[in-house]
Amino acid sequence: MTLPVDADFDVKYGIIDSDTPPHTELAALYRKSFAYYTFRVRLPSTLSGIIASLVKDKDELIARYGVDAGADIERTAAAITQLRTDILNNGALLLFEGNEPDTAQWNEFLEKLPPQKRSYYHACWLYAECYMYRKISSIFKATATLSSYDYFSRQKQTAAQLSTEAMMAVTRATRQTIRNSETFQQLLKLNLWGNRCDLSITSGKQVKPTGDAFDLVSELDANLLVDASASIWKCIENADSDSSIVDIVCDNAGYELYTDLILAEYIIDKGLASKVRFNVKAIPWFISDVMEYDYHWTLEFLAKHESELLRDLGEKLQKFTAEGKFEVEPIEYFWTSPYEFYRMEQVQPALYERLAQAKLVIFKGDLNYRKLLGDFSWNNTEPFETCLRGFKPSNLCTLRTIKADLICDLPPGKSEELFAKDKEWMLTGEYGLIQFARK
Ligand SMILES: O=P(O)(O)OC[C@@]1(O)O[C@H](CO)[C@@H](O)[C@@H]1O
Q1: Does ligand 1 lie within 6 Å of residue 201's CB atom?
Q2: Checking DSSP bridges between strand 396-401 and strand 432-437, what pairing results, if any?
């Protein structure tokens, strides 16, 4: 984390020169936090990337959306440049104006924030970062020609294409599997480490999965700091459960989504559930998050692949989707709201009740982890249950590679040991967690 040296900035915006204090909301207010680095460096770079690709793809966009798109591209690039400037100047989190389905919910949320906490550096990190992605979406939605354009789609598709080798190796290794705890735990871990390939952590730079995925899973066991995979197996193989549904709350497209599909295929093939539901994002989100279109694009990518192995897999998964064994859930704006999950029952009771139908809910990735823990600096040994603050619609687990400075449920001394080796160990995605909470 190389930070810009600008004492004036810190003085002007009241930045505190410390880590996030214990038991405090995470915020870019703390100079030594990852949130500060995110707002000073990562997000401005993400926005520059969007502007650059609008300029680069202008002709293609005009060919696709018509000549009026030319002016919309100019306006959009200007609005995103403004957003970047606002972030670099600790601007306010203003109310949204468009008539998108979630505008009222967002505005109600923003209006309830204390006025002194309604700016990028003073708001809770989770709120301010979600706000930025919602704001980008509103800029595109306000145009006549680009309102349905997914400005991250090319990056997501490239990520999938770059993963072909890894996909072939994993597909080959999983055509004949056994229904047992060991195999299930391996696939769960494969799925966990798939979360390393996220584009928002690199501000959009591609990450190519290399090496044999299953060898890597074994090698990475030492980096798995909490491993509740055996308890998750017990939960899912339990024949007494009334429910036969597993929910996956998805994170990234590309290789990670592929590993979600492989885990889901196993769950269906081995009769561990009759349906796997995929919960995807309503708007382009944290660069690489899965939207409904990405799900179908990925199945099509596999089904039309030159490799017979991937083609067979793609066709099988398309059939699962047509038969309702795999289901993409209807658009749900709660996932792209700023709310922590402990507030779901109150804010979006229908979603809470829907998750309660599942025998297991799998939360993927770092941002979902932040929402489970509520972007809060828990003590690193505090129990997962405590940190969920009562959120437990069903049995739930989290598969998260660690890319942000919050954590819980570690064995005493572990965090200190890792900090002694590398003071940035929480930011690299090299370490992972599989945590579980029984309903
Ligand atoms: O949810 P994901 O894809 O695993 O990670 C999202 C992420 O890159 O974005 C956040 C910061 O911008 C971090 O919490 C995390 O590193």
Answers
A1: yes
A2: antiparallel
**Ligand 1 center to 260 CA (angstroms):** 17
Distance from C-alpha of 337 to C-alpha of 53, rounded to nearest angstrom? 26
Which one is the CATH code of 7-141: 3.40.50.2300, 3.30.830.10, 3.40.50.360, 1.20.930.60?
Answer: 1.20.930.60
- The residues spanned by each domain of the chain are 7-141, 153-437
pLDDT digits (tens, 9 = 90+) for 201-225: 454 555 566 656 777 788 889 999 9
Q: Cα–Cα distances in Å, from 415 out to 60, 406, 410?
A: 49, 11, 7
Q: What average pLDDT does this structure show over 30-48? A: 97
* 363-380 per-position pLDDT tens digit: 999 999 999 999 999 999
- Please give the structure tokens belonging to residue 111: 């209006």
Distance between Cα 304 and ligand 1 center (Å): 31
Q: Which residues pair with 27 in a beta bridge?
A: 124
The residue whose C-alpha atom lies closest to atom 3 belonging to ligand 1 is: 198
Q: What is the pLDDT of residues 9-21, one digit of tens each?
A: 999 999 999 999 9
Measured between alpha carbons, how far is 323 from 314 in angstroms, rounded to an integer?
Answer: 14
Residue 437, Cβ density class (10 Å: 0-12 exposed, 13-18 middle, ≥19 buried): buried
